[in-house]
Amino acid sequence: MTSVPAEVAALQPRRIGAHTFDFARRTAVMAVVNRTPDSFFDRGATFALDAAVAQALRAVEEGADWVDVGGLPFSPDTPDVPVAEELDRVLPVVEAIRASSDVVISVDTYRPEVAQAVLDGGADVINDVMGLRVAGLGEVVAGSGATIVIAHSIGQPHRHHRGPQYEDVVGEVVAYLTERVEHARALGIAEDRIVIDPGHDLNKNTLHTLEITRRLREVAAIGLPMLVALSNKDFVGESIDRPQGERLSGTLAATALCVEAGARIVRAHHVPETVDAVRMTEAVLGLRAPAYLRHNIDPGTD
Questions:
Q1: Has 204 been annotated as catalytic?
Q2: Which of 14, 133, 204, 267 is catalytic?
Q3: pLDDT tens-digit readout, 179-191
Q4: Which one of 91, 144, 262, 281 has the minimum C-beta count within 10 Å?
Q5: Is pTM beyond 0.85 here?
Q6: CA distance 109 to 111
Q7: Active site residue 233
Q8: Active-site annotation holder among 204, 233, 247, 264
Q9: Going from the N-terminus, what domains does the chain have, and what CATH number goes with each?
Q10: Structure confidence by residue, pLDDT tens digits, 229-242
């Protein structure tokens, strides 16, 4: 008997790309591959094409089930990127990864032109931080057979949304995601191709994000696989007073709590550490057997 939310325990296995995921019992680790010169985490370390592809393939070797390729910064403090430039950044990475691996590939974009090109180039998933609010994106996904990640955010693309206010942030996130899922279904995207994301820190302050994390079971109760993107975010740094680059321990603590509450895809910058944290959480919850049993099992062992 585990404490996993009933709606999560009832999830059926689903096929994404070349892989089948049993989200009732397993959590997928999604590796972040940013092809931007100004990523908040790596400051452009994987901006070069070769570096981005190498990072993605290294993540697969380290245990990632999924790689998420991004060519746009979310922050409005950076210059906007034209569609052609975003495509130049992400499409060659997708094509190179697909040529070398059957790992699930998602692309973090809200632009339909980019989505169509990367899906044609071998991507399996569109990770949309705008929640299908940009015209045309849903139709591209519906016509492709791809999976869509629908995230909660209330701002406009590449625009500041200063001082966000919520009466009940979790209730509003749940209502938004429920409505967006219905919108996706109306466009022809089957429910077994939809993933939800409560949008940690997206148009939210640290208190909002902590409340979402604390009450994440309410989001899991929607009954679809849930992605959480926690890695090295500001809510971690502000909670434990750690600058960027020193937030791994806090990220892993939040990750374990989210998995226990029903998250089934975890977006991560530090893949090996995240894989270990997720596997340990699964073992504690009774979802995964230990890799081996030796301690106090056989006579004469310690």
A1: no
A2: 267
A3: 999 999 999 999 9
A4: 144
A5: yes
A6: 6
A7: yes
A8: 233
A9: 20-284 (3.20.20.20)
A10: 999 999 999 999 99
